[in-house]
Amino acid sequence: MAVIGIDLGTTNSLGAYWKDGTVHLIPMEGERFLLPSVVGYVEGEGFLAGAAAKERLILYPEDTVASFKRFMGTEKEYHLGGKAYSPMELSAMVLEQIKRNAEFFLKEEIEEAVITVPAYFNDKQRSDTKKAAQIAGLKVDRLINEPSAAALAYRMEYGEEDRTLLVFDFGGGTLDLSYVECFDNVIEIIAVAGDNHLGGDDIDQAVSEYFCRENGLKSEELTKEDQAKLRKLSEVSKCALAEREEVTMELETGGRVCRVLLNEERLFEICMPLFGKIKQLFVHILEDAGSKVSGIDELIMVGGSSKLGVVKRFLRELLGKEPIVLGETDRVVACGAGVYAGIRQRREEIRDMLLTDVCPFTLGIGVNNRANRDKNILSPMIERNTTLPASHRERFVTVGDYQKEIRIQIYQGEEYYVDDDVLLGELTIEVALKPAGQAWVDVQFTYDINGILHVMAENEMGERRQILLANQTLSEAELEWYTREMEKIMLPPIQQPENQKMLAFFLDYYEKSTGHKRERIASMTGRILTGLSSGRKKEVKNAEKLGKMWMTQLQQAMDMQEELLFDGELKVGFGEELDDFEEESDEFGEESEEFI
Ligand code: ADP
Ligand code: MG
Asked: What residues flank ion ligand 2 with Cβ within 5 A?
């Protein structure tokens, strides 16, 4: 059983695994490692995730969704094919696609994954990520923070000296800054800051607006299709600046051709308002970490938007030091996740690392507000950015005379009034009958590294009440329901891109062959087709397994230019596997010939 690491990104997702002492990325489509985190609905067919879905964004914007990670943990609904889907379900579709691609590539079942999440993800967002993995059939014991993954990737490349890192992760929809200390075998996140509405998408938006301004266009007057085309054009042009000095953007809209010249200088100006926000975030994180720019040993650039020359230039000017670029910036987090997957499999070559965490939000309880009795205020117990595990105990007194009990409401958030924070749970405990302010309870918060919050209240009589607030997972029944739903809605196996690729391989081979060889290929293809369209999980799996095995053998035979495969001698397990296959599915055999 293989364990893989997954960077489940807002814009792109990647998979990685550990083998032979190093980390490898898993190809998603052809030579590409990035799987767009996009889900599309194909009328009358079903759902698909990845590049094929992204391609449909322009033509079928109503049936395609992207960037749903931004709303993970919320009640937001996306309507596709007449039904509503949550960000969790959509993420499950992306994870399932990654799992499938990984199994296809590694030729073994993937059961466990290490998934990265932004360090600021709250409990609900983390538990929804775990649930998404569960729906996709992946076991996830531990989510790791994206900056911790980046730090792991940095240490693989630069060695294990003690270092203070500032991880600058600039992706498609978000910017995350993390102040990370690495010492010995510990990677500790000291502070995090970020903006989950600041990323490459915003740069594209700013470039689009610039394009409209320069051409006297009003973006809201463009057709939906033209708006989408302009966004795509902006993104492509921005990325092209990595290779070229300048790019001419050109769009035909409303019967005329509009143009704008884009170069580094102009892009720098266009990005100025965004850079202002970035600077504020640096101030914020350094304050929270109790540090200064000089306290940072290395600035690590991560995320696709970190590929922009203007971003690098801005950071160099802001901090007065050269940022570190670890290869392709949008692959760093996935590589770290792959390293951690290796650690989980206890691979000898890598040292076990302790990834500590911070509590990304303040946890506290609602207390009475003298100024306004109707609006309770937050009394922080564990402040944001506290290193985990953490524990805090505090005494609270009654507000009413001879009050019988105290209700302890547990909140997460930074807002003064608890109504604006997130209510996590509550417990009630009796108190001694005394005048106001004289009866008391001690409340203790303990928050561990797996995101489990234990709250305990103890009154003066020594009685205790407690509650455990953990990342939730799906119940058996819920999981079964989701799995069934997923099977119903995803593209049928025969139309999955990798199976299409496999069939194309056989058909191509069929075309190239003649005689006996051709008949065998026809029979193989028929068997695979029958299996894939059987509608039965086991048979589909079998057909996929067999198809992959044959494909490998045929490929080997092709490589060696050997005909042996058809003499019934060379192939390992060929005959046996075929028998198994036939035993497991009675309908196979005769019927299969009809398919070609
Ligand atoms: P996320 O972590 O949000 O899933 P990524 O780290 O993959 O996303 O970053 C995606 C963003 O990176 C997109 O906005 C994309 O336009 C941008 N990007 C990718 N390649 C380049 C490039 N060469 N130059 C500029 N931006 C790029
Ligand atoms: Mg990312």
From this structure: 9, 171
Instruction: Give pLDDT, residue 563.
Output: 52
Calpha distance 184→196 (Å, rounded): 32
Give the N- to C-terminal CA distance of the chain in Å, as an integer: 35
pLDDT at 561: 60
- Integer Cα distance of 149 and 218 in angstroms: 42
Q: Shortest CA distance to 85 belongs to which of 94, 75, 95?
A: 75
Task: Quote the pTM value.
Answer: 0.77
Q: How far is CA 282 from CA 192, 287, 489, in A?
A: 10, 8, 44
Ligand 1 atom showing the smallest separation from residue 9 Cα: 4
Please give the mean pLDDT across all residues of the chain.
88
Residue 433, by phi and psi: left (phi above 0), alpha (psi -120 to 50) or beta?
A: beta
Greatest CA separation for the chain: 99
Ligand nearest to the CA of 334: 2
Pocket of ligand 1 (CB under 6 A): 9-12, 171-174, 199-201, 235, 238-239, 242, 303-305, 307-308, 330
What sign does the dihedral 370-375-381-384 (CA atoms) show? negative
Amino acid at 23: V
Ligand 1 atom at minimum distance from 173 CA? 3
- Cβ atoms of 39 and 64 closer than 8 Å: yes
Q: What is the atom index within ligand 1 of the atom nearest the CA of 330?
A: 6
How do residues 151-190 score in pLDDT, each as one tens digit? 999 999 998 899 999 999 999 989 999 999 999 888 988 9
